[in-house]
Amino acid sequence: SSGINAEWPLRPGLEKNLVRIIEPYSRVQIAHVAETISLPYEVVEKKLSQIILDKKFSGILDQGSGVLIVYDGSESDQTYTYALDTITHMGKVVDVLFKKAQKLS
Fold first, then answer.
1. Which residues of the chain have pLDDT under 50?
2. Residue 19: CB partners within 8 Å, gap ≥ 6?
3. What is the pLDDT of residues 64-77, one digit of tens each?
């Protein structure tokens, strides 16, 4: 047995506690999070991965270095919004140029 208790990931409030622990960081060692919450490294790593995949937290796990890299969710949301606006405006410009080109021919 690997020593991992199957009920740890189901512990009430685990997800909320993990998010509260990692929120202040831009980079945090997974081992530090595991130690802070008194759970095995593997359990914390798996749960953090699940939280990221479920889009409940924005970041990536760098498993090679054992680090969670935290993204500021609001920044990435704004970038996406700005990109969509830019594409929309570019589409309008292309439409206008196309109509002008048609009049020339």
1. 1-3, 6
2. 51, 56, 57
3. 899 999 887 655 55
Longest distance between any two alpha carbons in the chain, whole Å: 77
Q: How many CB atoms lie within 10 A of CB 68?
A: 26
CA distances, 22 to each of 13, 26, 81 (Å): 14, 8, 26
C-beta atoms surrounding 54 within 10 Å: 9
* pTM, entire model: 0.59
Radius of gyration of the chain (CA): 22
Q: How far is CA 14 from the centre of its chain?
A: 18
Q: Is 3 left (phi over 0), alpha (psi -120 to 50) or beta?
A: left
